[in-house]
Amino acid sequence: MENFKSFGGRIEIPLERGFTAITGPNGSGKSNTGDAIQFVLGPKSSKSLRADQSTDLIFDGGAHRKPATCATVSLVFSNPVESNGRRRLGINDDEVTFTRSVRIGKGGKGISSYEFNGRPSTLTEIRRVLASAGVQAGGYNTVLQGDVTSLANMTPKARRKVLEEIAGVSAYDGEIQKADRRRSEAEQTMDLLRVLADEQEHRRSSLESERKEALRVQEIRQGLDRARIILAQTTHRTLLEDIEHEQDGLSAASEAISSAKTAMKALEAEQQHTRDEINRLNQAIQEVLGEDHQALTTRSRELVIAIDRAKDRVETLSQAAEDCDLEVARIVEEIDDVEHQLNEVEEGLKESRDKYEGAVSDLKQSTQDHAEAQASVEKGDRHVRELSKELSVLEDEVRTIEDVLGAAKGEFSATSAAHNLAIESLATAEEAEEDAQVEVTGIKHEIDEIKGESGGEEELSALRKQIHDLNLQEQSLSTSRDEHEGRLRNAQRRLYDAQQAAKQSGSGLPHSLQAVEAVLEASRTGDLEGVHGPLCDLVHPTDESHTQALLLAFGGRLAHVVVEDDSAAQACIQWLKKHNAGRATFLPLNKLKPVRAGRASMLLNKDGVVGLASTLVEVNQHFQLAVQHTLRDTVLVDSTSVGRELMGMVRMVSLDGTVFDAGGAMTGGSKQGGMRLNFRRAGRAASEVETCLAEVNRLRMAEETIIGAIERVREQRRDLHKRIHAASESDVKERRRLLEKELSNATRELERSSDITKKRAKELGVLENKLKDAEQSLKDTEAALEKAIEARDAASESLKQQTPAHLTARLREAETAKHAAEMEIEKQAARIEDHERRVTNLREGLERYQARREVMDEQQKERRQEATSLLDQRAEDEKQLEQVNEEIAQLSSDVRDLQNELNDANDTSRDQAVRSERVSDQIRRHEQRRSTCSRRIEEIRQELEEVIGEMNQDEIQPAEDEADLPTVDAATKSVNRLTREIDAIGPVNMHAIDQYDDAVQRLESFATDLTSLEEERESLLNLVSMLEEERVKRLTMVFDQIDENFREIYDLLSAGGSGELCLENPEDPFSGGLLMVARPAGKNKRTRLTALSGGEKSMAALAFIFSVQRYDPSPFYYLDEVDQNLDSDNAQRIALLCQKVSHQAQFIMVTLRKVSLQLADHHIGVTHAGDGVSRVLMDLDRTKAIELGEAALVEAKKLEATQKESLASSLPNPEEMPRVPEAPPELVSDVPKVALDGIRRRAADAGESDGDEYMEQDLGPIVERAQQNKEDLDPIPEDEEASLVNLEVTD
Question: Which strand ranges, in their side-by-side order, compose the sheet holding 1174-1177?
Answer without folding.
Answer: 142-143, 1116-1120, 1146-1150, 19-23, 1162-1168, 1174-1177
